[in-house]
Amino acid sequence: MQAFLKRKNIEISLKRYGIDALSAMAQGLFCSLLIGTILNTIGQRLGVTALTRVVATIGGVDYTVGAMASAMSGPAMATAIAYALQAPPLVLFSLITVGFASNALGGAGGPLAVLFVAILSTEIGKAVSKETKVDILVTPLVTIGSGMLFSALLAPLIGKAAIQVGSLIMWATELQPFFMGILVSALVGIALTLPISSAAICAALGLTGLAGGAAVAGCCAQMVGFAVISFQENGVSGLVSQGLGTSMLQMGNIVKNPRIWIPATFASMITGPLATCIFRFENNGPAVTSGMGTCGLVGPIGVYTGWLKAVEEGGKSAVSAMDWISLLLLCFILPAVLSLLCSAFCRKMGWIKPGDMKLAS
């Protein structure tokens, strides 16, 4: 069996499924739901006709370019996962159908359903790939067939479970905003810097509302924090690559000296409860944006999208000046200031030394 799994490149491991597949799922979400949301927002707010025009009507539903991209989130996630699992072409292409089905049947918890179903059907497809002389028929049939079966049996259950967990976190945050603000902000922020996907976690749990706002604050604290405290080592390029890219770039340095993580994490533990208790900072945009931080400014864009949604639905009269002030403070100013202050203390104590946060060129 071990020889067969090795030959088929089926690696049952936490890294393959918990890191590679999860990170790929987030990329699939980014290239579909997230981009679709951004396109819709640009089209509506800037009056770009090409982005607000209906490009297709399917089953009586009108789709703009952005809406079409968002509708393809299931196939995008599934194929991204299959790609991360190094699936052969016929398996990879078959996952388009599987992803659509599992995401649709998973409901609001579709992303987590896609993760599980895509992994199972991909590995089954890889197991039968090129084992027969009619591979072009057998591999797609088995991959899609198993994917449909798992989607029907597992996706609704996984989707409901994910939403229950997400709802529990959001309920607890409303009930205990101070402690949950610290917990959610710190943990999601840490997940963003680790080689796993905080965006996929937030999407899978449907993390929005006050908990989503705390998550945005925590992720921004990590990215902005590392960007500013490592500026003397990495300059403007490091500021941009970490502040608008990812704080994951510091993971190698964190392994060498874990104490460089203190300033950004400290900042997230302050901005989190400020978001939940003082500013009542919510993210009611797509749940995936709760775990993106300042990466491409997706976190703030998600919050802004939530504001517009609330205005359109009548839950909010208008986007206020205080909304913008809270966004600037929690996503940019406070993370930078708090991280710099904590970093100065850590350097004075000798915990952080020059060169500890130098990024590889």
UniProtKB/TrEMBL annotation:
Membrane topology: Multi-pass membrane protein
InterPro entries in the record: PTS_EIIC
Single GO molecular function: protein-N(PI)-phosphohistidine-sugar phosphotransferase activity
Gene Ontology terms: biological process: phosphoenolpyruvate-dependent sugar phosphotransferase system
Keywords: Cell membrane, Membrane, Sugar transport, Transmembrane, Transmembrane helix, Transport
Location of the protein in the cell: Cell membrane
Domain Phosphotransferase system EIIC: 20-359
A Pfam family reported for this protein in Swiss-Prot or TrEMBL: PTS_EIIC_2
Record protein name field: Phosphotransferase system EIIC domain-containing protein
Segments traversing the membrane: 21-42, 137-158, 178-203, 210-231, 260-279, 286-304, 324-346
Cellular component GO terms held in the UniProt record: plasma membrane
Highest taxon listed in the record's lineage: Bacteria
